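In this supplementary section we document a worked example of the pipeline. Step one takes a protein sequence of length 254 as its only input; no multiple sequence alignment statistics are reported here. Step two produces a three-dimensional model, which step three serialises into structure tokens for compact storage. The input and output of this example are shown verbatim.
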Amino acid sequence: MQIWMEKRQSTRQFKTESVANSVFDRIDDWKKNFEFPHHESIDWNAAVVKEGEIIHSTFTGLVSKYIRVTAPHYLMLSSEPNDKDSFLIGFLGESFVKLMTELGIGTCWVGHSLSDEFAKDDLGMPPNHRYHIIIAFGIPQTLEIRKKIRKTKEETISDLKDGDRWLVDALRSSPSAVNSQPWYLYYDEGCYHYMMRRPKVLGLLLKDKTIIDMGIGFYHIYDVIKAKGYRLTWHFESNKNKYGEQILTFKYFE
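The serialised model returned by step three reads:
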């Protein structure tokens, strides 16, 4: 498992002070230069909201009481709509979480519902985009790393290629909405099948966020494979079986 995955901590308590300007510069550089398989298939944006108060004012109503995360800054993720956009937004967003974790910055995915009108008029979202989700970030109040509650290996994967425990450990370290951990892997005929488990009632209500979670989880797989120096191919390939709904298949090789 990558060091950043072990250090990554969903932080809900932030100091009020701003991060250094160099952090904003690194985020901007990352956004300009980050490429990945399928990156040309989505028109996306990650907009930094430096003045967190503009987001704080939108936490209203009963639901917001439970999802509210007050941070000095936020990263708003949006894209032009297509059938893979939520998955790829999760994938892209977790790459920013990696960057900020390595810079010592705390983060938290926040499934807050902002209207497209607000995102366009007040946050500068491109007119052809739809809003997906925000990531709160800032200096955490504590550096303590809590023990993460995760499903067992058996609940995460069916068959595993010999020596691939590191792959499962990377996936199991991923964050997800209400800690649902919706992913499932199995190995068959020379490739891995990346599945989304059949959702329970809450999962049905949060399906768009669940697909974002699937993108987050796959970024962990992608990053650990790349860190080991392997090449990776992956293809979106939808079908359903006893494990759930398949999102894609992938294989890695030297």
